[in-house]
Write the structure tokens for this entry.
Amino acid sequence: MTGARFPMFRRRNYSIRQKLTSMNMLVSGAALLLACTAFAIYELADFRTTMVNSLSTQAQIIGANSASALLFNDAESARNTLSALQASPNIISASIYTRSNNIFATWSRHGGEDAPLFPGIPTGQTLTYSFGGNELVLTRVIDFQGKRIGAVRIRSDLSEVSGRLVRYTGIVAAVLAMSLFAAFVFSSIFQKATARPIAQLADTARIVSREKKYSVRAPTTTNADEIALLIEAFNEMLGQIQERDSALQAGRDELELRVVRRTAQLEAVNRELESFTYSVAHDLRAPLRHIQGFADALIEECSGQIDEAARGYLTRIIESTRRMDQLINDLLGLAQVGRQELRVQPTKLDPLVNDVVRDLNHETQGRNIEWRIGDLPTVDCDPGLIKLVFHNLLSNAVKYTRPRDPAIIEAGQQTVEGERVIYIRDNGVGFNMKYAHKLFGVFERLHRREDFEGTGVGLATVQRIIHKHGGRIWAEAAVDRGATFFLTLPTAGQSKTL
Amino acid sequence: MTAPAGSILRLRRAAARPSIRACLAAGLIFGGLAGLRAQTQKPTEYEVQAAYLSNFGRFVEYPARTSAASDVFNVCVLGPDPFGSLLDAALRNEAINGVPMAAKRIGTPEEGAACRIVFLTVSKESQLTAILSTLGATGALTVSGMPNFARRGGMVQFILDGNRVRFEINLAAAQRARLTLSSQLLKLAVAVRRAP
């Protein structure tokens, strides 16, 4: 459409109807013009020949009638003969010459004309003529009884030819105009059979491509020409596309249905598994309490009856039950995270992390820890769960920097490939990146319990919470050179519906 | 040579100017030079008459002849020849309808049987009636410069009009001799005498 503004492209924007019309008119106009021009040229040439012939005849008659005058030297009689030409309106003047090419008699329609010199006739010819200006000059030998006795020269006006040319041009112009009009009318009529079906086809194609509506069909014509074939093929193509489109849609619907069904199944299984974990952990507690209670009772109430070795065993039993209790608590926490609904709200991370640090400071009396807490963003999250995340990550950092003096623990944010990432870095013992894939597994531990206590559930819980928020978590580390945990969370106001 | 000159002078009308008379007289006096002079100066009266004599035959239709003379178109002069070589010159290489022309001098009207045209000199004026009646039977065109020739039964009479040589025609006389004169010729005549 922009091309319409530039005249040089305008022609391309003509519709087929306009192109056909102008084509028809051009063709008929050109043909007619050629024919008329040819006729006009022929007519003019023919008219010239006729004119020469007629003038030659007149010259011959004049010659025959003035032969005696020439022979008996009677110029008066010759002039009388010439003056008969008065009757031919085209003739301007005429002269008769003697055998020795001297002027003998002359006549002029308007009088006063000087006798022209003898124009000369090439030997062996009886006639010469020349078209010049707007007149024809013809000279003819006067023969009398086989003897050349003089010559006659006639000047004729050609304005009749010019008039004829003007009339002819006028007729040609009129015929041309009428023919073009007729061509326009006829081509308008014939367009019903050609241009209109094409225009309708184009409209249909436009609707299909713009609205992606494959149910429309181009109107068919009663003709059996190429256009009808084209329309038929186009409609057939549309039909195929429509079929394929609906098949595709059906497939997609089915797939979606299957995904929904599978997801429901998975969710059910998952829920079952979680409730199983929860009930197992919960149900394990009661017997564990009993073991713990009776072990305590044994030590306190029957201390006189048991020896030192038995007391040692009992102490170990009590310690183990405490650890098992811790394990059960952690497992219950993990299961809780899975079961719990997220209560998402915009949360400032700075005060949250500071709370966690304050809590941890109580537990780290006597240690030299340098906290470097930078600016943290506000994110959409469940503040209770995210607090748990930071508690786990920071307490890990405290734990694995135990051999360091001072221990340096950092928290902050940075942009990695256009994404905002929160990091927690320590200068602790780190880990071998070879085992990084095991880091977030349940009960997976990369360090001996003797060196660093723990159940192996904490990072699994952290990962589960982050994933539940739609974020990601990963870690980079090297042995004895500290570890860095990275996590992403949706920025406030941008979280998806969970 | 003076006799013909005098006859021509008599031929002229009273209106003829003396200068022309003198000129013509001079021309005839130096007749031997006439042919030479004709090329450069105005033709003399006899030159013109000789030319006319060579042309009259082209406008006359003769009745079918049986005589053997039809293989030559003779232009005859009856009486003392005023033309000298002028007539021979005018007729040289001329032909009418393929018949070659020739000049012929005759002494009697009877010889006119071999002639198509007979020119009568002024000297024959006294015997004109007898001569014309004889020639009338031969079917020749009679031409003369003598006054009243046409009126007296001659067919073509030369007349000097100013400095131009013209002629009068007696059509009735020609018709009596069964000659048909072309209208082309008649229209040039000063006067045409027709049968009453």
About this structure: Chain A has three domains: 16-184, 211-339, 343-487. The interface with chain B takes residues 65, 67-69, 71-74, 77, 144-145 of chain A (CB under 8 Å). The longest strand of chain A covers residues 147-157. Residues 226-301 of chain A form the longest helix (76 residues).
